[in-house]
Structures are given as C-alpha cells and as structure tokens.
Specification:
single chain; alpha/beta; 2-enoyl-CoA Hydratase, Chain A, domain 1; 2 domains; eight-stranded mixed sheet; 9 helices; 39% helix; extended
C-alpha cells in the first residue's frame, strides 16, 4: 500500500502508525504537546489511547513503542507502566538516543526491549522531592514519606524486570548513573541491540570516492589550511585509511536518475576559500 498524505499527517501529528502498529512516544507538533518526548499527562494519555485502539482491533498482534526521552513525571510513567502491564498485546520497546529517568522504567517493563547501539541510558531516583519547598514540618514529613514509597515502588520495578535485586537498585539510583546499551542488556533491563545494516551495498559511490587516488601535495595543503583555521601550531602525523565496508545482498539501490547532474567520485582539490 502506498503512503498517503493522510497517513503521513497521522504519524507526524498523532505520533502513531496504526497500519504498522507503531507508537512514537512524544509529540513533534508543539500545539499537541509542548513538552515533546517528556512524560506528561498529555503525552502518556495519547500513548495509552493509541494502545487501547490497537488492542481492540487486534489483541494478538504486537505493538511497537518507539522512544527517545529525557524522562518526566514519575506518576505519569507509572500510569503508562500499568497500562502496558494490563495490555493483552505484546509490547515491544525500541529505544534510541537518550533513554533517561522515567523512560528507563518503561523500557524495563515492556515485553521485549530493543536498543540501538549508541543509546545512552540514565538511571537515577525519581527526583520528585527536589521540587518540594516545605513551609511546614508536617507537610515536609508527608511529602518525604510519599517520596520514599514512590522510590521503593520504582526500584522494585527495576528488580522485577532485570536480573539485579532491589538492593542493587536502591544503591544505584542514589546518583546519576549513565550506562550503555550493552550494559543495560547485561543487567537485564534490555534484551537485544538492533544491529546496524551492512551498508556496503548502498555505498558504491562512497567506496569509489574513498579509494580514489589523492595527491599528497593537495592533501598536505588542505591539512595546513584546516590547521590554520583553528589556530593550531602543530598537528600530529596523519595516515589516511579506508573504512572497511560490509555488504548485504538484501539491500538494493534504485539507480533511477534523480536529476541530470552527474557527480564524479574523484575528490576535488582543496579550495583556498
């Protein structure tokens, strides 16, 4: 089926692709949600309603939740977490960029968790208490009791969805802890890294450009010019290298001409400008 203007508008404005059962967490259009990919009442309610529609239409088919998020309201994250746990569909998490704070609990709680290789994950406590400016000692005590309850609940979610016990998470969240996708998988917070494609089949022009003969004088001239632009007196000795490409027969390039202009694969000489 061809992509229509209506389907594109739906994805961009509503953050959902019903055809492929994908929810993109976080609105792109400010009029819908000024907080972007943060966990707010609006962003979470939109995601949950998309889930309910997909669950009603096909309760046995998976739902994909695509996310890159700096986090947000811990109570809204619990709302979304509970909705995922009660959903009859398998919920797959696909994360990239930053998965921070509230987003890490959602990642942990999904049925299957996939991360792109360069994803960075930030784990810390709920941070809710930082905004409290108590005017009364009793109010401060009430807020503190609730904060302890909330943090214990969140740490238990980590423990229930990883191979590490709750005591471990009690310690880890006391400071901002950045971990890699590989480390998240080792801890049991995620399951698999989305492997990059072998892109050599798509890079024939690029490979030819890389392998093209360079004039040593032109290269030296260019390097001196670049050094001067950043006011660098010395530059360590450099040796050119050609990146090794891997090929995937499943990747095919449509070589239909886009325009009449033909770009040579041979690098141009450096400009004085």
């Amino acid at each position: 089926m061809a992509i229509t203007n209506d389907s594109v508008a739906q994805i961009l404005e509503s953050d959902v692709d019903f055809k492929h059962r994908r929810i993109y967490f976080g609105a792109l259009i400010e009029s819908f949600d000024e907080s972007g990919s943060e966990f707010t009442w609006r962003s979470v309610e939109r995601a949950i309603r998309h889930m309910h529609i997909m669950e009603f239409e096909a309760p046995a088919k998976p739902i994909e939740l695509h996310m890159s998020s700096p986090g947000g309201d811990p109570y809204e994250l619990l709302r979304l977490y509970d909705a995922i746990q009660s959903c009859s569909c398998q919920v797959k998490f696909i994360g990239g960029g930053m998965i921070a704070s509230a987003a890490t609990w959602i990642m942990a709680g999904c049925d299957e968790r996939f991360l792109y290789p360069n994803t960075r994950i930030l784990i810390h406590d709920s941070g809710w208490g930082e905004s409290i400016t108590p005017e009364k000692l009793t109010d401060a005590t009430v807020h503190l009791d609730n904060e302890k309850f909330l943090q214990a609940k969140l740490n238990q979610i980590y423990a229930d969805n990883s191979i590490m016990p709750v005591d471990f998470w009690d310690e880890m969240v006391k400071r901002d802890l950045w971990i890699s996708a590989e480390e998240a998988i080792t801890l049991g917070l995620a399951d698999k890294i989305i492997a990059p494609r072998k892109r050599g089949s798509l890079r024939k022009t690029r490979i030819a450009s890389m392998k093209a003969e360079r004039d040593k004088k032109d290269m030296s001239k260019l390097i001196r010019m670049l050094k001067d632009r950043i006011y660098m007196d010395k530059l360590s000795k450099l040796e050119l290298h050609i990146p090794e490409e891997k090929f995937d027969k499943a990747l095919v390039v449509d070589n239909s001409p886009i325009e009449d202009a033909v770009v040579s694969a041979v690098p141009a000489k450096p400009s004085e400008v």
